[in-house]
Design goal:
Length: 139
């Protein structure tokens, strides 16, 4: 259940950042574009697929394994977004500024969501440690 909670939390953060990122990206590369309602389902699908990568993180992994999984997850996110982006025609492979813009946007969103999630997990761990200490003092 805890892993599902983390997945939904990351999904919410990713979706929010993607909506913001799409707004900025389209303002730069497609200022005349009016969105079709399909974009909403596309954003939800891509956000879910990229968030699902968080399931490979478990509580019992080493620091080194965590770093490796972060790198793998980052590359998975890039592949998912680029493949879906080409399929949904969010950008065109022959337009280098659009490709670079998309890769930069992926990196910014990945970094932002990772930092926010990491801080949230650290805060929760700190709270659990405080409660554990209080419980042990009472005993």
């Amino acid at each position: 259940m805890a892993r599902l909670k983390v997945l939904l939390d990351v999904f919410t953060k990713v979706t929010t950042c993607v909506v913001l990122g799409v707004a900025v990206y389209c303002m730069i590369f497609f200022p005349e574009l009016n969105f079709d309602t399909d974009i909403m389902w596309q954003i939800l699908l891509v956000s879910f697929l990229t968030s699902a990568g968080t399931l490979m993180y478990t509580d019992d992994i080493t620091k080194n394994s965590m770093k490796i999984r972060c790198v793998i997850h980052y590359f998975m996110v890039n592949v998912i977004v680029v493949v879906c982006g080409l399929w949904f025609e969010w950008f065109y492979a022959d337009n280098l500024p659009q490709v670079i813009g998309m890769l930069v946007l992926i990196a910014i969103i990945y970094l932002f969501v990772s930092v926010v999630t990491w801080k949230s997990v650290m805060k929760e761990a700190e709270l659990m440690n405080e409660r554990l200490a209080e419980y042990q003092e009472k005993r």
